[in-house]
Amino acid sequence: MRILFITSTRLGDAVISTGLLDHLLHRYPQARFTIVCGPVAAGLFAHMPRRERTIVMTKRPYDMHWVALWRDCVRTRWDLCVDLRGSVIPFLIRTSARRVMRGGRRPGPRVTHLAQVLGLTDTPMPVVWTSAQERAEACALLPEREGPWIALAPTANWSGKVWPAHRFVAFWHDFVARHGPARPVILYGPGAAERQMAARVLDALPDALDTGGNLSITQVAALLQRCALFIGNDSGLMHLSAAAGTPTLGLFGPSRVDEYAPCGRRAAQVVAPGPTGHADMKDLEVGVVVRAASDLLSRH
After folding, report:
1. Which residues cross the membrane (predicted)?
2. Mind listing the domains of the chain with CATH numbers?
3. Which of 80, 103, 186, 255 matches a 20 to 30 Å C-alpha distance to 155?
């Protein structure tokens, strides 16, 4: 059995879709999977069981990336095509069954929207797949004797989502004063912009472990599984942390918390005050985040 799974170009949405993939892995134990995603998300599926291939779809002018994908897939006979992008591809290839997510803004969690594509009443939660080597490397990088380790993710792909760096620093000092010694792990993505945002926190917390921004997605996931807590902006890293099972506190401002709050029983969120869609992260107080983090930590 061969399944074509078309997911998002963005890391956060791709992470959210892993719950659906995990469901399909268990439902069809003999199936082989081809994953279609963007370059940023491709590494997420590196250790997925029974993954036959990943097709990395890079955006091209005039939507020619869809034509390239059709050429890649048209010669194969598929048993099932799941398309979370709502494209015409499932209708232009040979497939015994197709499940296509329709566009349009809908209320409720994104993870629930994805479950509805397969007609599921129980919403499958996102997962991560890491290798034994990555988990061993994470143990060496974050030794238990130096912990507990707390992950801070002070970056995002849009400035409106970013809690100011000095607030992260103030949070850390307040949190440690309440809970005792801990070590911060600073997580961020590749590129100069991400590095610049993280640098302001790194400079103020000399004891922090700088992950460098050059780890693979699954290496970061293995590190997150070693952390006692994650505090970070609405980002792909936040969703990755929740999928890794780390107690995760997402910080939200103008982004859509009803749709993109972190998923799972070990996840929570705080929202800056203000009207929906216009809340300012500068108005999110340190004390509110500290109390929410303390509550999450006490429960898990």
Report:
1. none
2. 2-117 (3.40.50.2000), 132-299 (3.40.50.2000)
3. 103
| Sites in the chain below the pLDDT cut of 70 | 104
224-256 CB burial, b ≥16 within 10 A, e <16 = bbbbbbbbbbbbbbbbbbbbbbbbbbbbbbbbe
Tokens encoding 286: 């340190």
User: What pLDDT was estimated at residue 107?
Assistant: 80
The pLDDT of residue 95: 98
The pLDDT value recorded for residue 276 is 80
Tell me what pLDDT residue 103 has: 76
Position 40 scores a pLDDT of 95
**Tens digits of residue pLDDT in 84-134:** 999 999 999 999 999 999 876 778 899 999 999 999 999 999 999 999 999
pLDDT reported for residue 14:
98
